[in-house]
């Protein structure tokens, strides 16, 4: 396996080509952004933690027959993944009221949403990831009706699996973001990451925020929250890395 030229750099990761056109190497960074990159900073060790957490969670999903792009963890900050074409539709899964949802509708955070709310957003940093409905996604060519149906079903399956898993380690999966990609065969699989960067995780006993909201809202204790999530998922402490 040879790491070749950089193909893409996002807010939290870099993607590199390999000598196999069917695989990429993803490198996780410590850079942190919020509010569409209007707030920037660094969370020490975030790349190592998110790489490990994503690897564990994707392996768990694979064991439950949910297809992902994950192949293997290569190093503290790198993992090997299947090369996919990312569908430019971010999927937001909301189990409770929080964040922009609370602000948008003028409701208090913390209320349970029944049924679970699934939202589509156009994946565009320049436009601020605007929300859209099915018709918009199809009319603008971002996805087909079949794509959206597949993504909805996978998102619900992932939510059911992860909500129960996080509860077993004392965390409430409030909401989270997913991205999907297509293999050359046309199969849609889970891509990107699942980590404290992309999930709202609240401690089930105390309600304490254990995710990037601590950075967004200037709550302090950001590194400690990420390290605690890492510990609960992997059974190790960050100091052991």
Descriptive account of the structure:
This protein has helices spanning 46-63, 99-105, 134-139, 145-168, 213-216, 222-234; strands spanning 3-9, 13-18, 23-28, 31-34, 39-42, 70-73, 78-82, 85-86, 89-96, 112-122, 131-132, 171-182, 188-191, 199-203. By secondary structure, the chain is of the alpha+beta class. The longest helix has 24 residues, at 145-168. The chain starts with a strand and ends in a 7-residue tail after the last helix.
Salient structural properties:
five-stranded antiparallel beta sheet; 241 residues; 33% strand; 30% helix; Phosphorylase Kinase, domain 1; 14 strands; 6 helices; alpha+beta; D-amino Acid Aminotransferase, Chain A, domain 1
Helix count from the secondary structure assignment: 6
Tally of structural domains: 2
DSSP helix fraction: 25-40%
CATH topology of the largest domain: D-amino Acid Aminotransferase, Chain A, domain 1
Cα shape: globular
Largest sheet: 7 strands, antiparallel
CATH level 1 name of the largest domain: Alpha Beta
> Which range does the strand content fall in?
25-35%
Identify the CATH architecture of the largest domain.
Answer: 2-Layer Sandwich
Taken in chain order, the helices and strands follow as EEEEEHEEEEHEEHHEEEHH
The CATH homologous superfamily name of the largest domain equals ATP-grasp fold, B domain
Radius of gyration: 17 Å
What is the average per-residue confidence, as pLDDT, rounded to a whole number?
96
Structural class, by secondary structure, is alpha+beta
> Ranges with pLDDT <50 over ≥5 residues?
none
State the total count of DSSP E strands: 14
State the end-to-end distance: 24 Å
């Amino acid at each position: 396996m040879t790491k070749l030229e950089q193909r893409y750099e996002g807010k939290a990761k870099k993607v590199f080509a390999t000598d196999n056109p069917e695989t990429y190497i993803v490198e996780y960074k410590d850079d942190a952004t919020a509010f569409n990159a209007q707030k920037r900073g660094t969370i020490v060790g975030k790349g190592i933690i998110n790489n490990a957490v994503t690897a564990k969670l994707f392996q768990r999903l694979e064991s439950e027959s949910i297809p992902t792009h994950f192949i293997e963890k290569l190093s503290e900050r790198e993992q090997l993944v299947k090369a996919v074409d990312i569908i430019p539709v971010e999927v937001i899964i909301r189990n409770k009221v929080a964040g922009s949802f609370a602000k948008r509708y003028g409701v208090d955070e913390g209320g349970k949403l029944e049924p679970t709310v699934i939202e589509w957003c156009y994946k565009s940093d320049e436009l601020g990831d605007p929300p859209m409905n099915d018709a918009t996604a199809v009319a603008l060519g971002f996805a087909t009706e079949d794509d959206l149906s597949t993504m909805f079903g996978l998102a619900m399956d992932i939510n059911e699996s992860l909500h129960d898993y996080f509860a077993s380690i004392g965390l409430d999966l409030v909401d989270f973001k997913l991205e999907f990609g297509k293999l050359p065969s046309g199969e849609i699989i889970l891509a990107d990451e699942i980590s404290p960067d992309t999930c709202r995780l609240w401690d089930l006993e105390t309600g304490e925020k254990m995710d990037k909201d601590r950075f967004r809202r200037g709550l302090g204790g950001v590194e400690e929250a990420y390290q605690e999530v890492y510990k609960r998922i992997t059974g190790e402490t960050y100091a052991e890395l």
